[in-house]
């Protein structure tokens, strides 16, 4: 294992533990079931359909709401670890990795959404992966990797819009970055 990868894994582990501590501390900030949660759990037609489908798939395993929260936290922490790894590996600035890690992992308000049945937790996870893809676009030189990354950004954009229609703003952001690279 190279020295850079070792440090990246250390950063990931440290910030994931800090993130989990922040989620644990902020657990009581919002109720597990908010007024909007019932719309997602009952598949209300005014709600976007991606999150209720996600909950229905998890509901095949168990109907326990704490399991839903555990999966949301697991997905988020995994995407956050990937973000820290990509920043450290591709940008190679220890201060930036540390700054982003502290800024995100110590954001108690944002982490309070991970313990609620709302779209925000999955949305934050997809945004983390979206940012990783944008960072990787700047470092790929091979056409097939760039093309695959752009296709994946399109899928992530569609997923964001399917979860939260307000995330349509990420499409222009992606196009601006792709245009700058072209």
Task: Explain what this protein looks like in three dimensions.
- The two termini are 34 Å apart.
- The longest helix has 27 residues.
- Helix 4 packs antiparallel against helix 5.
- This protein is 74% helix and 0% strand.
- It has 9 helices and no strands.
- With 182 residues, it is mainly alpha-helical.
Number of helices: 9
- The beta-strand count equals 0
Distance between the termini: 34 Å
Q: How large is the share of residues in beta strands? A: under 5%
Layout of SSEs?
Elements: H1 3-25, H2 37-41, H3 50-61, H4 65-91, H5 94-105, H6 108-111, H7 120-137, H8 143-163, H9 170-181
Helix pairs in contact: 1-4, 1-5, 4-5, 4-7, 7-8, 8-9
Key features of this structure:
single chain; 9 helices; mainly alpha
Please provide a brief summary of the model:
By secondary structure, the protein is mainly α. 74% of the residues lie in helices and 0% in strands. Helix 1 runs antiparallel to helix 4 (65-91) and helix 1 (3-25) packs parallel to helix 5.
């Amino acid at each position: 294992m190279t020295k850079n990868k070792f440090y990246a894994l250390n950063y990931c582990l440290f910030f994931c533990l800090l993130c989990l501590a922040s989620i644990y501390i902020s657990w009581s900030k919002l109720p597990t079931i908010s007024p909007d949660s019932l719309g997602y759990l009952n598949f209300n037609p005014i709600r976007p359909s991606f999150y209720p489908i996600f909950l229905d798939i998890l509901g095949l395993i168990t109907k326990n709401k704490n399991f839903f929260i555990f999966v949301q936290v697991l997905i988020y922490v995994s995407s956050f670890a990937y973000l820290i790894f990509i920043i450290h590996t591709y940008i190679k600035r220890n201060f930036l990795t540390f700054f982003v890690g502290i800024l995100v992992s110590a954001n108690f308000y944002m982490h309070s959404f991970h313990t609620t049945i709302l779209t925000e937790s999955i949305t934050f996870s997809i945004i983390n992966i979206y940012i990783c893809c944008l960072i990787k676009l700047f470092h790929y030189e091979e056409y097939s990797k760039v093309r695959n990354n752009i296709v994946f950004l399109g899928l992530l954009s569609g997923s964001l819009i399917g979860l939260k229609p307000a995330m349509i703003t990420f499409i222009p952001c992606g196009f601006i970055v792709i245009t700058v690279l072209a």
